């Protein structure tokens, strides 16, 4: 099989496994899903080697070249994001296979397959219409996944559906404008042909609004802190770590291809940056004021989305946009890994203590020190402290800000880190024993061993990747963003 | 393919466009659900007419079959289920929301109008390019060539959307789907007349799709409507069987992915079709997809309608007993 043929494996494999899982018994579905995640991870590695070797891997689906056919391409961004998706799905499904409470029902397995296929597809899509269809698949799967949280989650799922579909419609308008203006839906060809500043600005603006709604970028974030905690724990982990990354990547791609074409891109990028800054502060402050684990972690996602879009203004102002791109991508990866760890660990604590409320977690640290440690480590990576991947990403964004002379982003990066540190500390504090009690005698329902190991392994991965980030940076630099595919 | 120049737009088109806009606004503005639903169904029919007028019969058939068929059934079914949410009694708040909405709408409309006015009226060169390629696609109808050959990845993903929507809906409707056991003579006659006719229509749309407007989506939508009617009329094979129905639903998607793999094995490219067997492959995959789409749409309807049906039946059964109690 040539490298090009590998590009569709991360899409078709989870999709086929998802379809099979709908009709297979639970054990078979779980086994197949785990195998597919491992295989996807291996494909990501192979694609990474191919990208290092010869740049972006291109695939003309069905043998038809654009504009008649569809082009898919894997560059450094695609490869690392597919790797993240494989790891997130692997972690969530291992835990869900060990304890059914984390899954919420049999439909978890087919829906996870569909969601994984959709996000992987978005990571390799170079065709705006294909990207739109993939977003639809992702929306359907994610909304149903949220609804697996039981009758109480129905309202949250419905609200999520409305927001997500509205976001899709904005993007569909952008797709229609792209086709109307350039006569093609292939990103590279469209960027070549687009010559009207206003229309290109409108395409970017519509994409920004649509994707901001889907990613829960401030001020369109209010659905996320309701929807993510309402879902079963494994689903919350996937939603925060993975699902919102798809809309982020689409936003990045549109900025990458269309940004340089119009003068309107710079003010739009600044607006995105301001929204991101507000998200970092607002999400961080609200996370400090919540009193349930999952709710705190969900608001933390709202804050972190702010960092993920911060590269948008920086790539326009920094003298070397690659630093901003790579920094932003790394911070997004770090968030994915840390969030899976955090949500799964929170799920384990909540199962053990019988409540997700902070005041009900007292004493859990004596019985489940490793699970609490996973939350702590993940928090360190989110806060951007060494030696974690979050630190590497944040450091590069700091460099890009200094380079662009934008000291205010610097203040934001550091202030947001403090907030992250504060709410992580608050979660850890809640697990301590009551003052004076050293017995650790609290009776807990012990979760399965896998449930304890997986979050810690992921938290450890944040550190490992933080120590050897050059591996990721090499792959990301092999095909520079904005260099075309 | 005909290109519509502005001079071709006549008074009738203008009237249909205006009617589409009016029914769309009515569907949102009418407070009563019956009125809003009727406005929405009329909107769908007018939209289908409009698609037909701009020389897009495939879209028109799909819109008519989906809007008038499954979507109509779902909406009408929802009408006499559940109490509607109490309208917000805080009048000032309602007025404020309407005002903000209208202002935002006006700004968006003005902005979009500005952008759209900058679009050139020249048709894209993609149409002629695609038409040129049709002879290498295995079928003669250009739309089918686009859907099942040039851009078959999009079609595969769209099928996946329908399939996983059905999977999700089936999982969320936790109660057993009520079976109609005693449909009564009228419904039996309806079933005998309409269901075979719809199945025949679906088959024709499917086969015709290779050379004329039609295809798997349109045929599937009609088949879905036929299955819903058959179910409501108590036709035995159409009685819901969750597990088996799901097998039919995922079979089409799996076969499509398998076809992609066969393309990879035979030609070295995912989803590639060799001209020698492209026609057979397209017809075979369209047949499977029609069944998948039809069953999936019917499942969506049954999943939405199941719970309250069962509850209503229980209440009806309980009512005399309660009434008779001392």
Automatic annotation (TrEMBL), chain A:
Record's keyword terms, sorted: Cell membrane, Membrane, Transmembrane, Transmembrane helix
Domain NADH:quinone oxidoreductase/Mrp antiporter transmembrane residue range list: 125-418
Pfam families: Proton_antipo_M (PF00361)
Coiled coil region boundaries: none
UniProt keyword Cell membrane, yes or no: yes
InterPro entries in the record: CPA3_Na-H_Antiporter_D, NADH_UbQ_OxRdtase, ND/Mrp_TM
GO CC, alphabetical: plasma membrane
GO terms under biological process: ATP synthesis coupled electron transport
Superkingdom in the source lineage: Bacteria
Chain ranges passing through the membrane: 28-52, 64-97, 128-148, 160-179, 199-218, 230-252, 264-284, 296-316, 322-347, 368-386, 406-425, 451-473
Membrane topology: Multi-pass membrane protein
Alphabetized GO MF terms: NADH dehydrogenase (ubiquinone) activity
Localization terms from the record: Cell membrane; Membrane
PANTHER family, sorted: NA(+)_H(+) ANTIPORTER SUBUNIT D1 (PTHR42703:SF1), NADH DEHYDROGENASE (PTHR42703)
Family as reported in the entry's similarity comment: Belongs to the CPA3 antiporters (TC 2.A.63) subunit D family.
Protein name according to UniProt: Multisubunit sodium/proton antiporter MrpD subunit
Native source species: Microcella putealis
Lineage, uppermost ranks: Bacteria, Bacillati, Actinomycetota, Actinomycetes, Micrococcales
Automatic annotation (TrEMBL), chain B:
Major location (coarse): membrane
Compartments it resides in: Cell membrane
UniProt domain Na+/H+ antiporter MnhB subunit-related protein: residue ranges: 188-299
Domain of life: Bacteria
Residue ranges of every copy of the MrpA C-terminal/MbhD domain listed in the record: 19-81
InterPro entries: CPA3_antiporter_subunitB (IPR050622), MnhB (IPR007182), MrpA_C/MbhD (IPR025383)
GO cellular component, one term: plasma membrane
Membrane topology summary: Multi-pass membrane protein
This protein's UniProt keywords: Cell membrane, Membrane, Transmembrane, Transmembrane helix
Transmembrane segments: 12-30, 37-54, 60-79, 94-116, 156-177, 189-209, 215-233, 245-271, 277-302
Family listed: Belongs to the CPA3 antiporters (TC 2.A.63) subunit B family.
Family annotation (PANTHER family): NA(+)/H(+) ANTIPORTER SUBUNIT B, NA(+)_H(+) ANTIPORTER SUBUNIT B
Protein name stated in the entry: Multisubunit sodium/proton antiporter MrpB subunit
Taxon lineage: Bacteria, Bacillati, Actinomycetota, Actinomycetes, Micrococcales
């Amino acid at each position: 099989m040539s490298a090009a043929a590998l590009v569709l494996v991360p899409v078709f494999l989870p999709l086929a496994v998802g379809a099979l899982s709908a009709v297979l018994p639970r054990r078979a579905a779980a086994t197949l899903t785990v195998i597919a995640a491992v295989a996807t991870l291996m494909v990501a590695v192979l694609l990474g080697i191919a990208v290092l070797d010869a740049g972006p891997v291109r695939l003309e689906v069905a043998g038809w070249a654009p504009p008649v056919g569809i082009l898919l391409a894997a560059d450094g961004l695609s490869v690392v994001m597919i790797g993240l998706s494989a790891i997130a799905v692997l972690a969530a499904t291992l835990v869900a296979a060990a304890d059914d409470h984390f899954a919420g029902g049999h439909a978890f397995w087919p829906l996870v397959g569909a969601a994984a296929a959709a996000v992987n597809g978005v990571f390799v899509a170079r065709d705006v219409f294909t990207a739109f269809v993939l977003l639809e698949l992702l929306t359907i799967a994610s909304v149903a996944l949220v609804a697996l949280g039981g009758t109480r989650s129905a309202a949250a799922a419905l609200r999520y559906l409305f927001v997500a579909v509205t976001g899709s419609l904005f993007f569909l308008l952008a797709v229609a404008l792209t086709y109307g203006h350039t006569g093609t839906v292939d990103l590279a060809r469209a960027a070549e042909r687009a010559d009207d500043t206003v229309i290109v600005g409108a395409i970017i603006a519509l994409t920004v609004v649509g994707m901001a709604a889907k990613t829960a970028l401030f001020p369109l974030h209010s659905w996320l802190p309701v929807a993510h905690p309402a879902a079963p724990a494994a689903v919350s982990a996937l939603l925060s770590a993975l699902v919102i990354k798809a809309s982020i990547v689409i936003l990045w791609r549109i900025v990458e291809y269309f940004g340089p074409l119009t003068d309107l891109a710079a003010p739009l990028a600044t607006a995105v940056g301001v929204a991101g800054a507000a998200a970092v502060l607002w999400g961080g402050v609200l996370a400090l004021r919540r009193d349930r684990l999952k709710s705190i972690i969900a608001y933390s996602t709202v804050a972190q989305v702010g960092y993920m879009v911060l590269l948008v203004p920086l790539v326009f102002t920094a003298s070397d946009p690659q630093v901003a791109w790579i920094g932003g991508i790394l911070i997004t990866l770090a968030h994915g890994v840390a969030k899976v760890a955090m949500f799964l660990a929170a799920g384990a604590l909540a199962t053990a203590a019988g409540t997700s409320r902070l005041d009900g977690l007292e004493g859990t640290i004596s019985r489940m020190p490793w699970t609490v440690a996973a939350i702590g480590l993940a928090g360190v990576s989110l806060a951007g402290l060494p030696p974690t991947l979050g630190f590497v990403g944040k450091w590069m964004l700091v460099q890009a800000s200094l380079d662009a002379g934008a000291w205010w982003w610097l203040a934001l990066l550091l202030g947001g880190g403090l907030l992250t540190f504060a709410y992580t500390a608050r979660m850890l504090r809640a697990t301590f024993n009551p003052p004076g009690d050293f017995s650790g005698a609290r009776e807990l329902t012990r979760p399965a061993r896998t449930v304890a190991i997986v979050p810690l392994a992921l938290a450890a991965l944040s550190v490992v990747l933080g120590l050897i980030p050059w591996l990721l940076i090499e792959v990301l630099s092999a095909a520079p963003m904005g260099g075309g595919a | 393919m005909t290109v519509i120049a502005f001079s071709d737009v006549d008074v009738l088109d203008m009237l249909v466009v205006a009617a589409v806009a009016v029914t769309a606004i009515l569907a949102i503005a009418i407070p009563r659900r019956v009125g809003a639903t009727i406005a929405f169904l009329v909107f769908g029919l007018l939209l289908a007419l409009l698609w037909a007028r701009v020389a897009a019969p495939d879209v028109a058939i799909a819109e008519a079959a989906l809007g008038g068929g499954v979507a109509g059934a779902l909406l009408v079914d929802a009408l006499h289920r559940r109490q509607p949410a109490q309208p917000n009694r805080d009048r000032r708040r309602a007025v404020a929301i309407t005002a903000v909405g209208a202002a935002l709408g006006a700004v968006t409309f003005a902005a979009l109008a500005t952008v759209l006015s900058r679009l050139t009226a020249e048709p894209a060169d993609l149409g002629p390019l695609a038409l040129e390629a049709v002879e290498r696609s295995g079928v003669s109808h250009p739309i089918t060539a686009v859907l099942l050959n040039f851009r078959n990845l999009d079609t595969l993903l769209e099928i996946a959307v329908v399939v996983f929507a059905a999977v999700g809906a089936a999982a969320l409707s936790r109660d057993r789907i009520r079976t109609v056991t005693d449909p009564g003579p009228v419904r039996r006659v309806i079933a005998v007349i309409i269901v075979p006719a719809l199945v025949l229509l679906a088959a024709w749309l499917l086969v015709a799709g290779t050379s004329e407007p039609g295809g798997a989506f349109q045929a599937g939508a009609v088949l879905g409507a036929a299955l819903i009617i058959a179910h409501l009329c108590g036709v035995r094979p159409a009685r819901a069987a969750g597990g088996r129905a799901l097998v039919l639903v995922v079979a089409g998607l799996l076969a499509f992915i398998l076809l992609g793999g066969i393309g990879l094995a035979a030609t070295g490219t995912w989803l590639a079709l060799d001209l020698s067997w492209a026609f057979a492959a397209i017809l075979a995959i369209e047949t499977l997809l029609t069944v998948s789409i039809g069953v999936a749409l019917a499942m969506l309807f049954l999943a939405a309608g199941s719970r309250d049906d069962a509850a209503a039946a229980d209440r009806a059964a309980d009512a005399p007993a309660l009434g008779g109690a001392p």
